[in-house]
Amino acid sequence: MPDPRLGRLFRLERRGYLWGLRGIRALLTWCGRPERRYATVLVGGTNGKGSTAAALDRILREAGFRTGLYTSPHLVDFRERVRVDGRCMPAERLGALLRRFVPRGEHHGHSFFEVATAMALRHFADARVEIAVLEVGLGGRLDSTNAVSPEVSVLTGASLEHTEYLGDTLEEIAWEKAAIARRARPVVTGGRARARDLLEAAAAARGARVVRARRAARLSVRSMGLEGMELELPSGARLSTPLIGRHQVSNLECAAAAALQLRARGFAVDPLHVARGLAATRWPARFEWLARRRVLLDVAHNPEAAAAFARTWREVMPRRGVGVLGMLADKDARAVARALRPCARRLVVTAPDTVRAMPAERLSRAVGRVPHSVVPGVAAAVRAALQERRPGEPVFVTGSLYTVGEAMRALGHHVADRL
Fold first, then answer.
1. pTM above the 0.90 mark?
2. Peptide bond preceding 271: is omega within 30 degrees of 0, i.e. cis?
């Protein structure tokens, strides 16, 4: 039975985003400044943060480090957000942290993300990790993860998102995200040219040493299919990865470049660890193909991610399919639907079970003339898509991590306890 304190933690989401570092710093001081007991890496950007963080964590484990990995949100279980050596936080440990931190959060006005981040950082200290890889939540400058002092920062790219918080222009958003860079320390950059240039300029203005991932760790795609990709390293050596899509190549380059920057800062990581780590990286619901069910899961949630999904689909899928689409209310649903149109013979439109969801009727209007039906509830939408598909036709689920998580539960497909 779920710990009732977990429900209390999620009720803190009603407070919304509490901007600034005062709250997280107060929590960290209260619990003994755990983030000072290990090294950290911050991974920010618009898309690809989770994949990059997971790949860097895996590289560091290959090098023999005891690692912490903090990502958000989760797909099925809150414990996925906080991992030590790839393993989810144990349920009993989560219970102990909830007993300690939730009342503090309730009584002192902290946000959900402040409390969740402090719990993760405390868990890493108690587990005696040597280095923790932290995915930035929203933006960078005022995100709770930015309370740490990273050895290396990573910026996977930037696009227009959360404009009500981060600014109306790409320049403003890049400035907010680049604030995770630190003076005289390396920041690794990836992504598309214009956004990358803006991120690099903003990071350099803060005194960081900019390292472009593509120059530091160039990877080439030799082949790609539903089982994964074969990549070639600059040395000519090849490796296979279960990750799929050319956008993932940029994420893996960011992870590899960050690992090499850690090596330059005295951490015992070598190119062999990098190659082994990239090959061993698993990250669920990122163009993940469930072959037995002929269902594809992908958490694309904005136009840039949907476009990357569509490009990958065209490379590895021989035909269109039936898509299940559920999104959050603050996303550009019209642009996402437009990007997905070449992949979908028809869509089943729904809404995930969260207060942040876009109502299915509103999403239906955004989808417009793309053939679709509206089915309340993700589980019912998945069943409808499976019934509507033609023989041999694939089904895909996308639009939000919340939507994909609910679909995974409906399909009985769980995230591994250890990655």
1. yes
2. no
